[in-house]
Amino acid sequence: MVAYVARRFLQALPVLFGVTFVVFLLLYVTPGDPVELYMGQAGTVSPEEIARIRQEFGLDRPFLEQYGRFLWGVVRGDLGRSIIHRRPVAELIAERIPATMELSLFAALIALLVAIPVGVIAAVRRYSLLDSVGTLLSLVGVSMPGFWLGLILIILFSVTLRVLPVAGRMTYGTGLDPRTGFLLLDAVLQGNGRAALDVLRHLAMPALAMSAGMMAMTMRITRSSLLETIRQDYVRTARAKGVPEPRVILRHALRNALLPVVTAVALNLGALLGGNMVVETVFAWPGLGQRVVDAVKTRDFPLVQGCVLVYALTYVVLNLVADLSYAFLNPRISHGKEG
Amino acid sequence: MGSRVWRAFRRNRLALVGGGLVLVLGLSALLAPWIAPHDPLRGRLPDRLRGPSTTAVSGKLYLFGTDNLGRDILSRVLHGGRVSISLGLLVVGVSIVVGVVLGLVSAYAGGWVDTVVQRVVDVLLAFPYLVLAIALMGLFGPGFLNLVVALAFKEWVMACRIVRSEALALKTAAFVEASRAAGAGPARILVRHLLLNVIPGAIVVATLRVGWVVLMEASLSFLGLGIQPPQPSWGVIIADGRDYLFRAPWISTLPGIAILLFVLGVNLLGEGLRDALDPRLAGERVGE
């Protein structure tokens, strides 16, 4: 097992290198002189000054050396400085991560809480009304832009019913002290019930809009995986032994059927992170997605570069987790040399 | 083969519904210049923010209502479909050609060629689709062709992986070995045996991916990084209505329904084609 984990880590290394290289290229091939980007208005700085800055930032060095410097910076957590904010990129990213993580995790939670039970019922009561409705909804879920669903939710719950707030993470004046940045956690830790409810009301619509795709996918995978497991010999044996049906499904079949679901969820979490930037924009959610969209619009390339790198690294790590979790959970996967 | 596939496809009612949706939306986009009741770009300010199926002061009928500039939403959705669908087809078309060629070469050549291509594939897969596309649009600047490049940049990877794994299996198949023993050269094996046999799989992947690309175009255009207004695309029209959700919710709602129906149609059609053409692919994930 240890060998398997080590090998999987080694396999991820070239990908990580490739990712940093592509991200480095992104800034390297940016049209225009990076120094001029840093200095703002071109023409106000003398050529000698520009040459001095180029030297200071190492921009006069050969390509590979610049890449080496960039890589060394990444290892130390130094992602450069933002042109617009005039602050370290790493700082600008770090302060946005809690908001994005809170939203993503909440969306994933909603998706799983709905998708797994519905998937199970759809498989057990195959061809029933609920199965058909579930299948139809999951088809619609993957065919719909999440941000558009967000707008529809706003029309429904904010414009028509007037029950949920349109934007932001919380209302000011609830007395919440955002210490960890995870507002729901902060509210709970501080025993502030009013703030917790307020945070939940803000989370509801963006999380629901984000969860639709994952919900649909998880529902389909749960259903098909359980249908396949139910046909296995050991399930038939359990039934023949007289094990009650709910127990057969929940204890014997579902445990194994959830294997591909775990993998799919970990992979989907990556897709969720990548796709949430549009939903964040719709709900003015101060997360990483909105930061990268703003950075692209203001041509703040060091910030774009840093955000893209963080997204890609997260994605690689989630892929690794998906693979490893599958290996850990599935006793049939061999961890020997051939595994 | 053709009649067997058609019989299998025809039995699948959902696939027929999907095909119907694609046909109707595709045709209405294609014929937009002739069937759109109004000019999609010219608005009449006295007719602004009219609700669906209302007759305006000017006596004109607006079936889907108008936007804040008095432009007809129906005409904009029809013309927007032209842009969104053609972009989807173009991106997938380019990506399938690149993906099939690289997938075949990668599988057939093996060795370092395969290693290099597959490492590039791995690296591109490590980037979330939209994040990469947004960063590239930031570099390139807006525009239809830039959008095609930004989306195709990663899109070809999907076809490449599936074609490669199919070609690897075919490469060692008995009929290919026999052909090689009979003296067939690499070109003949690549084209006659490998290419022709991976085409059904490629058609299935292409169909399923068109929907995904249409969704990505909508996201990018909604963010203001894709198709630029006043030119309509489905994503652009949704963005137009964003500031009018309270007064005119129909502006954003209707193009979204068009996207939903089109992508749903493409997905149903693609799954039907998969089951009919290439049952081995069933269960293969063609998502991101």
Secondary-structure map:
The complex is a heterodimer of chains A (339) and B (288).
Chain A: H1 2-28, H2 34-39, H3 47-57, H4 63-76, H5 89-94, H6 97-124, H7 129-142, H8 146-160, H9 183-189, H10 193-230, H11 233-240, H12 245-282, H13 288-297, H14 301-329
Helix pairs in contact in A: 1-14, 6-7, 6-10, 6-12, 7-10, 8-10, 8-12, 9-10, 10-12, 11-12, 12-13, 12-14, 13-14
Chain B: H1 2-11, H2 13-30, H3 32-35, E1 54-55, E2 61-62, H4 73-109, H5 111-125, H6 129-140, H7 144-171, H8 174-181, H9 186-222, H10 234-240, H11 250-277
Antiparallel strand pairs in B: 1-2
Helix pairs in contact in B: 1-11, 2-4, 2-11, 4-5, 4-7, 4-9, 4-10, 4-11, 5-7, 6-7, 7-9, 9-10, 9-11, 10-11
Explain briefly what this protein structure is:
The complex is a heterodimer of chains A (339) and B (288). Chain A has helices at residues 2-28, 34-39, 47-57, 63-76, 89-94, 97-124, 129-142, 146-160, 183-189, 193-230, 233-240, 245-282, 288-297, 301-329.
